[in-house]
Amino acid sequence: MHDPTPTEGSTRTVSRRRLLGTAGATGLALGAGGAAAGYAAGHATAPVDHAPATPLSSLGTNRAKFHVKHQPGILQPAQAHSHLVAFDLAPGSGRREAAALLRRWSTVAERLMAGEPAPHQDTAVARDAGPSGLTVTFGFGHDFFTRTGLEKQRPVALDPLPEFSSDRLEKGRSNGDLWVQIGADDAPVAFHALRALQKEAGAAVRLRWHMSGFNRSPGATARPMSFRNLMGQVDGTNNPKPSEPDFQQRVFVPSDGEPAWMAHGSYAVVRRIRMLLDDWERLPLQEQEAVMGRRKSDGAPLSGGGETTEMDLEKTDAAGRPVVPMNAHARITRPDQNGGAAMLRRSFSYHDGFADDGAPDAGLLFVSWQADPLRGFVPVQRKLDRGDALSAFIRHEASGLFAVPGGAAKGEYVGQALLEG
Question: Beta partners for 350?
Fold first, then answer.
């Protein structure tokens, strides 16, 4: 899907490398935003309005800029392929080593996003492709500040998320000192970036966890359409748009915000949410729609209209019962049901094989962006935790919260204001 609103730092350019075979490159533009309230169970992103489909032959030329006000990978449409990876600083690594690492990583990201080879020992995995919409985003976890002696610079907004009764979190696949989000419209380009950043890390950090995801490719449907998640539901209908007057204040830390090094940055909540697809797929269609509060065919609210029609929460059936059930996911997550809480979601589906009983290990790599998690993710997830009908069909298995500073100016690296301030 393609957001009609121009996204920051995205241009169409031809790579300096020869573009070979890009007609077969795959990608997904899920929409530049996330959702207005939290499918903290996680919707992937999709815009409401749709621009013409991007020809497949142009996917390789799509280039996102590295030096922008907000780091790349937040406002750009979610791509077809992603890697989310967290690292911990190695014993003996501190502020100096972290600064050197972020400088190296920023150099690598800038080059790869421009379609250039990695500066050292390039693997040639992406040699025949263009930039393919590659974005690389860096963030800091809670314990990073302790290990670098920067506790006084740790934002209050980075305090650990509260526990939720539905959580089944695995410690080894949660949190981390450093977080990297990689997205690209071509799978080898995304893997190339992952491998280059891992090799550039050297002995400064140790891998904590890695997750890979995917989305629909542009051109896969007859026209650009809202994304469907692995439950088959139309997803992301109520995503906030950059054109909305309060978009910036909901998603990004203001230029005069605290701490100063987080100016123009955002906070990323990352959740691995398994969908219990065997249970879900046994539900009759009518019951699935009651759980969601929307028609499965087109995403329209059960109260009537089309996908973008405002839901009528007061409408009742002949028996006087709410047409949209009181515990329907779409009712609970509406911003007006959560004090206006909103977040920008930019998520990816995942499939990591099957359990011994044949059940798929599949679901959503939920990524939401907000200026303050306590005003974005937390209030919505608390309400979902108390009575969302969807909760019986999902399981939150991993979680992380990361402070993602603003973009690096030309000649600087991401996080420089923190590490050298």
Answer: 363
Decide: pTM greater than 0.85.
yes
The Cα-based distances of 237 to 48, 90, 404 in angstroms read 6, 42, 26
Bridge pairing between strands 135-140 and 81-89 = unpaired
Task: Please list, in sequence order, all residues whose beta carbon lies within 8 angstroms of the beta carbon of residue 286, skipping any fewer than 6 positions away.
Answer: none
31-61 pLDDT, tens digit per residue, is 333 333 333 333 344 344 445 555 556 789 9
Span 185-216, pLDDT tens digits: 999 999 999 999 999 999 999 999 999 999 98
Q: Return the axis-axis angle of helices 187-201 and 95-113, rounded to nearest 10°.
A: 150
Q: Are 294 and 308 in contact (CB under 8 A)?
A: no
**Which pair of tokens denotes residue 116?**
């250039």
CB burial readout 195-213, b (16+ within 10 A) else e: bbbbebbeebbeebbebbb
Task: Tell me if 364 sits within 8 A of 350, measured CB to CB.
Answer: yes
**CA 307/CA 8 separation, integer angstroms:** 27
Which residues, 6+ apart, have CB-to-CB distance to 90 below 8 Å?
Answer: 203, 204, 205, 206
* Catalytic-labelled residue, pool 235, 256, 298, 357: 235
Bridge partners for 362 per DSSP: 351
Q: 235 catalytic, yes or no?
A: yes
| CA-based radius of gyration for the chain | 21
Two tokens, residue 15: 């790579």
Q: Is residue 10 helix, strand or coil?
A: strand
Can you name the residues that pair with 85 across neighbouring β-strands? Answer: 180, 210
Cβ neighbours of 168 (radius 10 Å):
9
Q: Are 369 and 251 in contact (CB under 8 A)?
A: yes
Peptide bond into 259 cis (omega under 30): yes
325: Cβ–Cβ under 8 A, 6 or more apart, which residues? 290, 291, 293, 331, 389
Q: How far apart are CA 416 and CA 317, in angstroms?
A: 58
CB 124 within 8 A of CB 62: no
Neighbour count for residue 15 (Cβ, 10 Å): 18
Whether the Cβ atoms of residue 141 and residue 85 lie closer than 8 Å to each other: no
Which two tokens mark 347? 């998520």
